[in-house]
TrEMBL record:
Species annotation: Tunturiibacter lichenicola
Keyword annotations of the record: Membrane, Transmembrane, Transmembrane helix
Name of the protein: Putative membrane protein
Superkingdom of the organism of origin: Bacteria
Transmembrane intervals: 6-32, 53-71, 77-95, 107-127
Length: 130
C-alpha cells in the first residue's frame, strides 16, 4: 500500500515537473524570440529541434524528481518505466500538437523521454547513499 502511494506521488510529481518546466521554457522562448518559433504561421524546424532538446532536459529533471521520491526502497525502476509510459502516452494522445510537430519529432521526443527519464533516475540513484 505504501509503495503504491509513493509510486503514485512520484509519478504525479515527475509529470508535473516535466510538463511545468517544458511549458515555462516554451513560454520563455516564444516571448524572447517569436521569429525563432514561427514564420508565415508555420512552426520553424529550428524551434522543433530546440523543443526536442528542451524536452530531454525536462524529462531528466522529472525523472530525477521521481527517483528522489521513490528512493531505493520503493521500486524505483518501476516508477521510471511508469513515468515514461505516462509521458509518452500523453505525448502521442495530443493530436493537435502531434500534427504541429510531425511524426519525426514525435518519435524523437519519445526517444528523448526514455533517455531523459533514465538519465534522471541514473543521476539520482548513482549518487544517493547505498
Amino acid at each position: 500500500m505504501i509503495t503504491g502511494a509513493f509510486l503514485l506521488l512520484a509519478i504525479v510529481l515527475g509529470y508535473l515537473v516535466t510538463v511545468g518546466l517544458s511549458m515555462a521554457a516554451t513560454f520563455a522562448m516564444t516571448t524572447a524570440s517569436p521569429d525563432l518559433v514561427a514564420r508565415d504561421f508555420r512552426i520553424t524546424s529550428r524551434y522543433k529541434f530546440l523543443q526536442d532538446g528542451v524536452w530531454l532536459v525536462c524529462t531528466t529533471v522529472g525523472g530525477y524528481m521521481t527517483a528522489l521520491v521513490l528512493g531505493r526502497e520503493h521500486s524505483p525502476w518501476i516508477g521510471g518505466i511508469a513515468l515514461m509510459a505516462v509521458l509518452i502516452g500523453v505525448l502521442w494522445l495530443n493530436a493537435w500538437e502531434m500534427r504541429q510537430r510531425g511524426v519525426g519529432h514525435q518519435i524523437l521526443m519519445s526517444v528523448a523521454t526514455v533517455v531523459g527519464v533514465s538519465a534522471g533516475f541514473f543521476l539520482r540513484l548513482r549518487w544517493s547513499a547505498p
